[in-house]
Specification:
Four copies of one chain form a homotetramer. Chain A is α/β, with parallel strands linked by helices. Chain A has twelve helices and 13 strands. In chain A, the strands form two sheets. Chain A has a seven-stranded mixed β-sheet. A six-stranded parallel β-sheet of chain A has the order 2-1-3-4-6-5, with helices on both faces. In chain A, strand 5 (130-131), helix 7 and strand 6 (146-148) form a beta-alpha-beta unit. In chain A, helix 1 (14-24) crosses helix 12, helix 3 crosses helix 4 (83-92) and helix 8 packs parallel to helix 10 (213-225). In chain A, 61% of the residues are buried. Chains in contact: A-B, A-C, A-D, B-C, B-D, C-D. Chains A and B meet through strand 7, strand 8, strand 9, strand 10 and strand 13 of A and strand 7, strand 8, strand 9, strand 10 and strand 13 of B.
């Protein structure tokens, strides 16, 4: 069978190496081109010596048009503002693109510009781009030319909230998302606050009034609810390499029980391999999702205070980034959605 | 000057060793008696070899009445249900007591019985016991015979919420406390979930509907507000040895700004050495409080959603337990409140 | 093609879960039977929730004879002294066995009895058992009925030392092996010294005069050298979940250079996928082998002192245990030696 | 009593903050001047927010001569090559100096120049400088004007080896020092290899042929032995914030037992508060020395192989740097050697 030829731009960041990890075991994918401006000419395994003998591909500085001749799909792991320069060229050259930046996640250019402080050079593409959560946009992904891979916090939040919003079971104001990320979410870089000695005892909130993912979460929650929603979102950083946890608070409309809510979630996600609704009495734990494409979700109704509590855990580089991109690629290319993705869990 | 003779019951748990750490440098305290049922006859430094040469005291199995002849103050670090057996004997023998369990923290025996599932053997002592947060009960502590040292989550939550509640600036329903503890909060024990390999990648919520500290938080919040309050409280566990962080959400009554709120907090805590109200643009970080008796608090008003966000960080064994007990002892004995406590910070 | 039906006894320990991780992606293996005495009746994924949806097999308490009807190969991850009771029954019932204990690693029952303080119930099997390092016993493994999977320290030490010993390039007395293991080497258990709070700041030597792996290392070094060898071995524990590092000192016979030594190692291991001889100027790092079946080795000659320094790193649960067992299984069953094993590396 | 006025140059590095931690509780010291070129004008507690309320001193860019008017003693925590520019000016201005760099640790300028690749601008000061291990040079320190505070690896190695060398109990060739440092040894900086995500699973050797501390260890070992010694030294890095462990191998001259060796060590260090010789059956553990000025040492004779094994643990920033500097200061100023240093241990 013809394999999908895949290229990666930004192959040496943490999303890049996770893409290589996942795609290396993909039976239908051939990794044809790894682009890294910083390390062009070196082997991928020079940068990540764990990959000696597994992926010794020489990193290139291919132009988008050169990539188009080598690839059916290009996955871009570039900073926002850079993606929007590169992606149109790739699309024009005839390749499909899965982009990891914030540049194509918004339906509305104004929201992008508010969130990222940049004017959008190709707002017309926003209408075409598919937001890459397969559990929400599976149909659209089957024909997508451009997929905007979601942020980690949005994936973790939206999959937890969508069923309640879609069914109108919670009030749309007053939703609170309290989330904690591992340090790899900051990317591969040498900043003092992310150095081992500064970070290893540090648990802290950050960007508590204006994190960019807020508007991305609000867009998708609004679409699920059919009305405009604002959410209160607070990100935190914990001393871990990988993993993300969200604890979400919402007010139910009408009566409910934990059991009913759980049944709803199980039904809503019954066709979704990578969403695991936990049974009563168990709660998500990052240890159970690290290295994988799974998201674990639990829902509880707190009788004492009348609040619904949602809990979701995923790997910020897995379902929160690179592995979800591979899931989207599987849908886009007509492959079984779980191919190459089921067995990446870490064990212990 | 006559030193205060202090004894510790439960000296080999994590609260015990932190008490020894703090009291070892206290110029007005003589540690006269370390009781440990499990390790009686051994030296304290056999259990904690870091203390060889610092505290080689032989652990004893003294009875309460024997302790009374050796001690002016006894600090008990015992499980709930056990403290309530031991403390009355100590008081009857004429010593002052600072207790770390939940047994004397409640004004109302019924709330204790609901929270801990035990009937209280000496409910009359509840009226006398002083809740040991000096910032709230300094006056009462000066004459206290029995101090109930608060839980770590309650200390972290109440000090953050009290100014707003006292001044009637927030709605009393809908308060949400989302808090994260380090693993030492579970105590010194050999449980599989707290083993290094199981815990080191694990970030998770627990006891999300019924943590015992909920009612303790509610009691003190209600007293501050002058009316009954229920709060939504969700504890989490992060892979760290020490530290605690709370992120709290509340709805303001009337208009407010971050600056006004910050000014209020600075004023409210202007006389409290160990409460540090952070300047605008900075947020609490467990790295800054580990090993110390400080609690760092920040307050922000989120204009977009109309929520007040409070952030507080402390060391669960420090201001959240043993060091706050020493602070209470200082007040009870008429010493400068900060004596022996200012310089315990860890550096890095 | 007929798949190999594999069963695991001791499936819920850390070696067990790593076997499940590796065998779950093995195209030629069907996992037919997971035995756990402690958790019989529960799903494997109840014990390791990361495996929900990946391996929900019900754990059984199958007898060895029942296993024989379900399995072509049984992998035992049992304590020493227990394996020697179970393995003979399995062999008699006609299945091949790969055993993880120390029970079948010795050629000489007396050495086993000295090392483990037990008399051996079936010393005749020692002659038949193949020591399961494929790089050393590939030929023997192709026809093995019983494979004794080596210890982690021995694998890490022997693969580093074998080329020098085999070629008579170092003195056989005075060899020093200084090695460091991650905590998972102690197994899945709730011992206080392995609890997060006790272990997370603890770097320490242990069993410095009599670790059992010493005699195992000596046996294989002696076979490589063609004469009896004693080595000085010192194990240490570091605050990590997985990984092992050995630093080895030996005295060369005659002159040598780092380059010549490196060339020798490259030649000796040129046919061995999972042994990576590092180029000059680079050294092993556990970060590069965790999660994989690779062992990274570097060799340097220290001109100043005339010592050869060897460095080797592996994953104590990977090449040091479960994944090496799968490598042996591949050889025993005539499969490509690297099948299912090349792409288990963790990325970051 | 007149307090010693102390200044620190390089106050915001990890050695600097540890000096501030220790000196803040010193009853005989007044910290008069904190110099930081990078952060001049900011408060010390802006850089280390843990010190808000404890040390809010404004960092200055004082010249050496200005410092001389403010300080009796200046402690320099500067890079090598910089110290040798600054220290002579300070001495000329009449202050005593304790220097943390390698610039004044060598008796012989040629060894310095070989080790650091720099020519020494003031080799005459080498004769005057006292090597700052009080257990070895207590007498000399009482009159020292310039103290060269030793490296962390040298302190850890020399204190372990000195008794055997001094008494001629081991062969002087063939000594092997295998040591492991925590990451803070690399200093406060933003290098990628020391970032949390790169370092947290990384255990590795480094600089295995030419670490600068080798010659420093050799100098002091040679002085103890009364003859020239070369040692084999291998440093490693472990994923911890603080701590250091050395495992040392030597060949005895004549017969010996572990008990005799232990008795010798106990006698040799009987007057040294901060050297703890561990009883038989116990071994050093970094967890027991972190945060303190203690070094824990154990000695064993391995009957099987005829090797002596020495084990020593200290805190690389404590006894390995800043706290040892305070110990030296105590001796230089005629204070009790342990003042301000006994109670810095961390508890857990």
């Amino acid at each position: 069978m013809h394999k999908t030829r895949v290229g990666i731009i930004g192959a040496t960041g943490y999303v890049g190496v996770e893409l290589v990890r996942g795609l290396s075991v993909h039976p239908n994918v051939e990794l044809t081109c790894l682009v890294s401006r910083s390390f062009s000419g070196k082997a991928f395994s020079d940068i990540y010596p764990a990959y000696k003998g597994i992926c010794d591909t020489i990193l290139s500085d291919c132009s988008p048009s050169e990539m188009a001749s080598l690839c059916d799909v290009v996955i871009t792991a570039l900073p926002h503002g850079v993606s929007s320069q590169v992606v149109p060229v790739l699309l024009d050259a005839g390749v499909k693109v899965i982009d990891h930046s914030g540049d194509f996640r918004y339906r509305n250019a104004a929201t992008y510009e508010f969130s990222y402080g940049l004017s959008h050079p190709c707002p017309d593409l926003l209408a075409e781009a598919v937001y890459g959560i397969p559990e929400l946009y599976r149909e659209e992904l089957t024909t997508a030319r451009l997929t905007a891979n979601p942020g980690c916090y949005p994936t973790c939040s939206i999959l937890a909230l969508a069923p309640l919003l879609r069914h109108g079971l919670i009030k749309t104001d007053g939703i609170i998302i309290d989330a904690i990320s591992a340090i790899s979410g900051a990317g591969r870089k040498a900043d003092l606050p992310y150095s081992f000695c500064e970070a290893c005892d540090s648990l802290k909130p950050y960007a508590v009034l204006n994190h960019r993912h807020t508007t991305e979460i609000e867009q998708e929650c609004s679409l699920a609810a059919g009305k405009d929603i604002h959410v209160t979102f607070t990100p935190h950083l914990a001393p871990m390499k990988r993993g993300m946890l969200a604890t979400i608070y919402a007010d139910p409309i009408g009566e409910c029980t934990s059991e009913e809510l759980r049944a709803l979630y199980q039904k809503e996600y019954s066709g979704d391999t990578f969403v695991r609704i936990l049974p009563g009495g168990t709660l998500p734990d990052t240890a159970n999702v690290i290295g994988s494409n799974y998201i674990d979700i639990a829902v509880e109704f707190d009788r004492r205070t009348g609040k619904i509590k949602l809990f979701s855990a995923l790997d910020n580089l897995g379902k929160g980034a690179a592995l979800q991109a591979i899931q989207a690629l599987n849908v886009m290319q007509g492959y079984p959605e779980d191919i190459a993705l089921r067995n990446l869990s870490r064990g212990i």
